[in-house]
TrEMBL record:
Protein name, as recorded: GDSL-like Lipase/Acylhydrolase
Molecular function per GO: phosphatidylcholine lysophospholipase activity
Keyword Hydrolase part of the UniProt annotation: yes
Family matches, as InterPro entries: Ester_Hydrolysis_Enzymes, SGNH_hydro, SGNH_hydro_sf
Keywords assigned: Hydrolase
Domain SGNH hydrolase-type esterase: 9-187
One Pfam family in the UniProt entry: Lipase_GDSL_2
Protein's UniProt keywords contain Mitochondrion: no
Amino acid sequence: MPRSTTLVFAGDSITDAGRDRDDATSLGDGYVRLIAEAVGEDAVVVNKGISGDRAVDLAARWDDVLGAGPTVLTVYVGVNDMWRRFDSDDPTSALDFESTVTALLEAARGAGVERILLIEPFFVPVSEGQAAWLEDLDPKRAAVRRLAQRFDATLVELHDGIGAAAAEHGAGAIAPDGVHPTPQGAAIIADAWLAAYAAAPVGAATTGVAP
């Protein structure tokens, strides 16, 4: 990729990964840092993740995200739109989720973003009853897939790959609380992103399957 490429990552705590928000160069300790290490000096990498964000929270700070000047924008949101239903009785419908993310992507295209990657949200049930939570997340995953097609974005498939890794190694090795990845889980996300990025040229909607 040309050195003029600026990779901006917007999302929730999985993207944030403990970054120092007072330091614009801080990448956190998650998948964004691993991607930055992989691309090296070929691109500028900017982490705009904020822990706890839902789609509406991203919308409230979208000008700041686009102000980072992405040529390649990655959006990774959705699990908190599910989670708030169960921990705060504050649900987000799949329709509202899709409408909000649609507006974000329209603004990104309007701002001249050359390429968009959408990361599919994942959840690994780790306690009794949490399998039913997927009934809330699955329609949001479907919305992300539709939006990837609509906006010629690259879809980074994640849910099944993370689930398979958790089944093989145990959830504690991948995402102990079902959401926040360990270093091994973060590596799966980074590898999926890198594979999807490499597989599709700018302007081509496609999918990348997590190993």
